[in-house]
Design a protein that fits this description.
0% strand; mainly alpha
Length: 448
């Protein structure tokens, strides 16, 4: 469990660090409106990105099972079909629709006018050139599900270093290159993702990884595999959409507050950036738990799937508690890294960090148990749990408070905490019911 978990956790921390550096630079060179713009745009982008990435959850379920069963040919076929489907969805659907709908999406979340100006080009660039990042996530998910977590870590280090280098040049400008500000952050992200996609595709064909493509493969779409990808992946995609729609709706409620720009900046810095130190490490544990539990179920050893979840929960609680202490002990130091000087933004962000120091404990356990469910093929339960805990409960609380005239930032922060507590409880209960033991995975060889 630890062998797969630590590289994945470190990789996700580096990914979170990449976003933190973006926000820090934009905060210093553009101001808190730039922080709010990136946060709002990224939240919108994630709604669609997570849906496409759900294919990789379905891919991970199949790959882990086939690795456990010792069937390498089915592993490679599954990864190729996931790549093919993701390419069509991102290039043919996401890029044109995202470019056209970006202004309407920014108005939907009640982004302040000055935030919309900063966010529009960022969002359009991310939508239009997302394919590179999608390939990067696909390759990482495939390798981890096959038991190789160190190669995605190396790729993640390369991606982060490249992205930070590009952003240091593009955000403030350097030499003859003008300062692009918030737009430069998007440019650096998509350029780095595109270059890593080229490297990843080359290495898939080089035959040096535990998964790969070869010229003798059948290059045609295999709708049997694609159907299985959607069977297991679609609920996860809907789960991700529900969670991010909840995030977008929270931004809309935050945007309705009297000090909307300051509140959105506090939310973006504290929740989407600093809290990512917990959520990204916990997401790494989710991926590791899914791989280990899926492989062991495929090998006919479900008791080891249960052990994987318990180990992951313990590791996650240790990390979340450590970071939570930092949120409480040195909040101004952490916020200072983002160039936060506005007193109201600082006050709101510190209050949110207090709630998040507790939320992290529940989130990390919830994600460990979610990994156990998803890795064994139960991708529907986490979807329903997310609907209740990340959408119905927190948004319902905000709706009631707004209708009664009592909506304020502190109550929104409390609604987030209650949602995380609910998600943890429901995830643990569902996994312990043990219905995941009976889920079957089977695809016939192409042409049979």
């Amino acid at each position: 469990m630890w062998k797969i978990a630590w590289p994945t956790m470190l990789q996700n921390v580096l990914g979170g660090l990449q976003g933190i550096v973006d926000h820090a630079m934009v905060g210093h060179f553009v101001g808190y409106t730039g922080n709010a713009a990136i946060g709002v745009a990224w939240q919108i982008f994630l709604v669609v990105m997570v849906f496409i990435s759900s294919l990789f959850t379905g891919m991970g379920v199949l790959v882990a099972r086939f690795v456990g069963a010792g069937d390498s040919e089915k592993v490679n076929r599954t990864v190729y079909q996931a790549f093919l489907t993701a390419a069509v969805m991102s290039i043919v659907i996401l890029a044109p629709l995202g470019y056209i709908l970006s202004p309407s999406l920014l108005r939907l979340v009640n982004a302040a006018p000055e935030v919309q100006v900063e966010a529009l080009q960022y969002l359009r660039i991310m939508f239009t050139f997302s394919f590179g990042m999608i390939v990067y996530f696909m390759v990482g998910g495939a390798l981890r599900s096959a038991g190789d977590a160190r190669t995605p870590l190396r790729l993640g280090i390369m991606l982060t270093a490249l992205n930070i280098t590009l952003n240091v040049i593009l955000i403030p400008g350097w030499g003859p290159i003008p300062a692009f500000g918030t737009t430069g952050a998007a440019m650096g992200t998509v350029i780095a993702g595109g270059l890593m996609a080229v490297v990843s595709i080359y290495l898939l064909f080089a035959g040096k990884w535990v998964v790969g493509f070869h010229r003798a493969m059948d290059w045609r779409p295999d709708f049997r595999i694609i159907r299985e990808l959607f069977r297991f992946g679609l609920p996860t995609g809907l789960q991700g959409v529900a969670m991010n729609v909840g995030g977008v709706m929270l931004l809309a409620y935050i945007g309705s507050l009297p000090q909307s720009s300051e509140a959105q900046a506090a939310y973006v810095i504290s929740y989407t950036q600093l809290f990512s130190l917990i959520t990204w490490t916990s997401a790494g544990l989710l991926g590791a738990t899914a791989a280990v539990s899926g492989q062991n179920l495929g090998a006919g050893r479900p008791e080891r799937s249960i052990q994987a979840v318990h180990v992951a929960s313990g590791i996650g609680l240790g990390v979340a508690a450590t970071i939570g202490v930092l949120f409480l002990a040195i909040p101004r130091v952490l916020l200072g890294f983002f160039g936060v000087e506005d007193p109201l933004v600082t006050q709101m962000a510190i209050r949110l960090l207090m709630f998040l120091s507790v939320s992290g404990l529940f989130v990390t356990v919830a994600l460990a148990y979610t990994g156990g469910l998803q890795g064994t093929g139960d991708t529907k339960s986490p979807f329903y749990i997310s609907l209740v805990s990340q959408l119905i409960i927190p948004i319902g609380i905000c709706a009631v408070l707004q209708a009664t005239g009592h909506l304020q930032a502190t109550y929104i922060w409390l609604a987030i905490l209650i949602g995380h507590m609910t998600r943890c409880a429901l995830s643990v209960i569902r996994f312990r019911q043990g219905k995941w033991r009976d889920i079957k995975v089977s695809i016939e060889p192409a042409g049979s």
